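[09:14] KT: can someone run the structure on this one? pasting the chain below
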Amino acid sequence: MSSEENFQNSFKFENLKITLCEESQRKCKPSDDDLIISKYYTDHMLLIKWSQLRGWSAPEIIPFQNLSLHPAAKVLQYANSIFEGSKAIRGSDGKVRLFRFSRNMARMLTACERSALPSFDPNELHKCIKKLIEIDIEWVPRKEMSYLYIRPTAMGIDSNISPIPSTEALICVTCTPSGPYLGTKPLSLYAEPFHVRAWPGGVGNYKVSANYGPTLLIEKKAKQLGHNTVLWLYGDQQYITEAGVTNVFIYLVNKEGKKELVTPPLTDGLILPGITRESIIEIARAMNQFQVIEKNIGMEELIEALEQNRLMEMFGTGNACLVCAIGSIEYKEKRYPIPTVTSVDQVYIKILQTLVDIQYGRSSYHSDWVEVVPQQS
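[09:31] RB: done, structure tokens below
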């Protein structure tokens, strides 16, 4: 059955039920100077239940609370869950905006289908989440580069311990105010030559929860060595894939003397198709100042470009961090400084500023990438 046919059985925004917090239940909102992602959560959450027998229930916005799960739930036994990540941003004009949110909803649907979780109409989920943000709109920070992080999660919750597709599932959406995810200083990366994040034929190109748990030990090692996160490599050529939970861009002069902005391709299934990544490719191509290429680059090729003074910038990109300069890489016990912040072209700053101006409503350029969340009267 196609997704379009499944949409006929999707939950509907028009059936949304809303139960607001009592005044005594409302939390004290944090200062914009005290924002750490997942430290605080908003007053409300969105829940939508599904069963093979009854289909989707009506979506509900309810006061924020813990979930109750059977110990044999598929999400606990087999990590049968996926998630998304987006953010609501308060612009320079005070309006709250979502950035290319339909892309997040479409990506969430593909991850559900890859994980044998029930299909749904992404437009209906989009509208339900937008209503959740409208209700908790005062939680959206006012400080620039801070935002309300939106985390939709879908999970199998039936108690059948057999490794078969879930017969019961849940979509849960929570929101947490946050400051800059990876800070503002250039990132120091630990290039991991042995462990891999993803492989061809796997699920590295989906936001599947099981992608992330196995990376935590290597992330811990990177931090113990004094780095911010891991630069994930793959294969005999040690191809660069992702940096922590971000996509990677490399700005260099190729051997023919031409400037290129390179990012790993999506063709091998190793790379998450980031919405920020997609946006940067479009912005960079419109700049028409260098070639924008999706291709693999191995560590030896990167080091050669660095030693020949052809490597100018590296940066990570993602929903939470947006654009983060990469300042150094440790590979095989040797540290390589990356001249991103001293680059003459400062491509990463130009791209970051373009994205920020779009998200904050300061630019008409790609104004179709943002949508305003209504303020409650």
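[09:33] KT: thanks! Residues 91 and 360 are 4 Å apart (CA to CA).
[09:34] RB: yep, looked fine to me
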